[in-house]
User: Fold this.
Amino acid sequence: MTGSAQAARAVPADPAVPRFYRVVSRREDTYDTVTVELAEPTDPLPAFAPGQFAMLTAFGIGEVPISLSGFGDDGDGLALRLGHTLRSVGAVTRALHAAGPGQLVGVRGPFGTSWDVPSAAGHDIVVVAGGIGLAPLRPVLLAALADRSGYGRLLLLVGARSPADLLYTDELHDWRERGVEVAVTVDRPDNGWPGHVGVVTTLLRPARVVAEQTVAFVCGPEIMMRYAADALVGLGVPAKRIRVSLERTMRCGAGWCGHCQLGPLLLCRDGPVVTYDRAVELLRVREL
Amino acid sequence: MTAQTQARVAAHPFFAALTSHQRALLAEHAGPHSFADGDRVFAQGAAADRFWLIETGSVAVDMRVPGRGDQVVETLPAGTVLGWSWLHPPYRWHFGARARERTEAVVFDAAAVRQRCAADPVFGYAVLACFTPVIIERMQATRLRLLDLYASPNEIARAEAGQAGGQP
Assistant:
């Protein structure tokens, strides 16, 4: 099939109908987290942008929202390969976690807003990740590194539960080699851990963030995001230049069902990525 | 006190909220201090008679746990303060501290600073106002870590089931 033929087929994507992709590789990142690469689609979806998510189906079990953790576009505006990092926490993710090369997976998407990395051109990029929140942020770094001269400093601040829970350890090293200022902290060090110990916000001050030049990308548990975003605001970064990835119960992915409502936002459509000036008050409402 | 020490105190962000006069008063009780990688800065239970402004390097705050050795509970980077047990009785270190790399610091005679704070409440309040946000920040950080936000939901569920099962 030619590229133009693929593009023609990808346009009328019905958001409710999963497409078939095949697992072509599986990498164990930690004891409960894997990164799978999906490819060989029978009918490719439109390209995904960093920050967007897919609904992945484990056939016969169910469907879950999983953000893109790799590139989602292999040319011609099509998602010919998709990278997803997922943690085994329930029936569906357990099945997807166990899916090996050759297995078919259902994919719907792309859904939601993106990190909109190009709009940060000319600025320093500060990525603050907590736990598996590094997965949706990985494409931000990959995009910035792919256009390195387009951005100022690249800072990656990572918080993890323990050294054994750290994602992409090989890539962290590689990113450092490529000029990313990487700082990692853990809550629970083992005896051989030489790095920082403490919450991820403690990495901000030593990183010497230049507020007026910064666009920040924050992802992790919601409370961690709130503290990290507040700390960035405290350093002088405007809330509208802080982007967070929010999550509620994503079901339809297209803004139809309302399960993912956060106040005026339907996060599958108006999120998951929103600027902190929009999110800050919503996150303080207990009932939301 | 030397002019160099006074300049180092003035350059450190921790006392930035003080007036230059207040910083000069503090610097009268200060001097330079270096630690090699692995040096113990202080031991848990010892007299808390000093505090440090970390200029370069980093320090690990630790606690000796029988059977597990010195367990690091937090690391403190350059730009922050080490030590506040000197502020209140019993003036003993509640934790230990060890340099994690070559570390340069400004060390203060805590008893002398405390006496000056008591004698000059305006000065004392200003100094305490520098420490309080750090204490609050570290307490909040500790509370966040108690929540174990990065734990797997499965692990949390198992822990909660275990707790429920353990109740009479």
Observations:
- Helices of chain B lie at 3-11, 20-27, 110-119, 121-147, 153-166.
- The longest helix of chain B spans residues 121-147.
